[in-house]
Predict the structure of Mitochondrial ribonuclease P catalytic subunit.
Amino acid sequence: MELSKKKKKSLTLESQLMYDLGTCSKSNDLSRALSLYDDAISNNLRLNHNHFNTLLYICSNSLTSSPNSTKASTIDKGFTIFDRMIAQGINPTEAAITAVARLAAAKGDGELAFELVKNMGKYKALPRLRTYGPALFAFCENLEAEKAYIVEEHMAEMKVGLEEAEVAALLRVSVETGRVDKVYAYLLKLRNCVGCVSDGTVKVLEDWFGSELAARAGVGAGAGALDLDRIRGAVVSNGVGGMGRAERLACVDIDNVETKAFAESVASLALKREAHSNFSQFQEWLKNHADYEAVVDGANVGLYQQNFADGGFSISQLNVVVKEIRQRCHGKWPLVVLHKKRYWSLMDDPSNRELLEEWSKQDVLYTTPNGSNDDWYWIYAAVKLKCLLVSNDEMRDHIFELLGRNFFLKWKERHQVHFIFCKGSLQLQMPPSYSVVMQESEKGSWHVPTADGCNDEASRTWLCISRPNSYQYPDENSMESIDPVVDSLHSSNQPSPSACGTETVIKENGSHGTTTSFQSFNYKPASKTGKRKERSPPHSSCHLQLL
């Protein structure tokens, strides 16, 4: 939006420049931004850190759209701007250093990009994940594996966590340089930091498991002790001990130590934001009422689909949810958290009193005090009691304040129950009977959920990688011989895959007889036909055979 002429006249030259640079940033107009910069310098206009930050951002951002013939001059201009910034005694921010690191990486200088990050301390700036990206990706792209590993070590020292793109890059450079010892470590890191993997990461996994080096190395022959315990526990709990060769996906929940830390973190944050005495009182109350198997976000349920003219808090909806949860919990009442102001408003209606009084008598209700945020109460109760949470609230505003995105999402997947009312009928969406994360079996098989844009878990595509000691080729008239691979994806409440997609078998040339099989398919109810997702065979010097 253009400023009015009157307002433009009131701007100082520095403010006018900032406004014009902001306009260039929005339109990615590098040429005009550099012209404005040159004019400012020739007129001895003193630039501040906002001017420099914006100019450096425009330079780095334009690299993706600039023709190759102008990239070198853009990079040089960006460094000239950065040098002037330092010469003027202006400490660059993390955003400025990230932009310059991208310029360095664009000319293939990962060393300089990393040096910029390492020197941030003298500018009193702290690196973020994006600050490390240019150096890390440059080293990985140039197959400089050892330098990439050093960047990762520095990230760990600065407590900057990896995400999928970074782990995938490290995995790829380890695969391409034959660093077998590192490949398995990054497979585990990938499993811990991401749920469903992108197509690019799937390609890296296929390239690795389809290689002769992977066949010789036998990567995936065994998981760490903790993961074996989890998988074995899942096998016992699912009662598959007598099913012979079949395996099942496991439920991967946070353990007791993580749960305790999580609850303490929630409590610490709540005590800072709530009246200390109020939340402490709730903690004491919960110690004496610790038998709940489910917690209900009362406001979220009662206000569901009530945004119409005559809509309001629906206690009938809440009652339906309470009854259904109680039935599923074998007669145990859930804990309903409701704001005290809401409670007294409902009590004003005589038709609600009998139900509310019954809930109070059964210790179903906990009313949060005036001025409090009831979110902290129901999330703390659900974590502390290790029980289910009935709410459609995705809790996005809590995620980054707690223990980190990946950790929080793992807890949500195993404990949150979503709900819908369809024509007045309640439908609860219980947590899946298996975790939607990369999983490794005791036999070395890997099951990888893909992020193929599908939000319906029943239709999600999984990449299945098995590494048996020997592989029985399936008879053309029967799929029975590959049942062990297919069965490994079944769980008691899990839909069966209706069909296998393209299966690629890579046989190692030699006497080892090692095989690797890939399967990609969509989960579908048995009565439906699932679409097949074709994948290209991994590039390998080994013999390929499509089944």
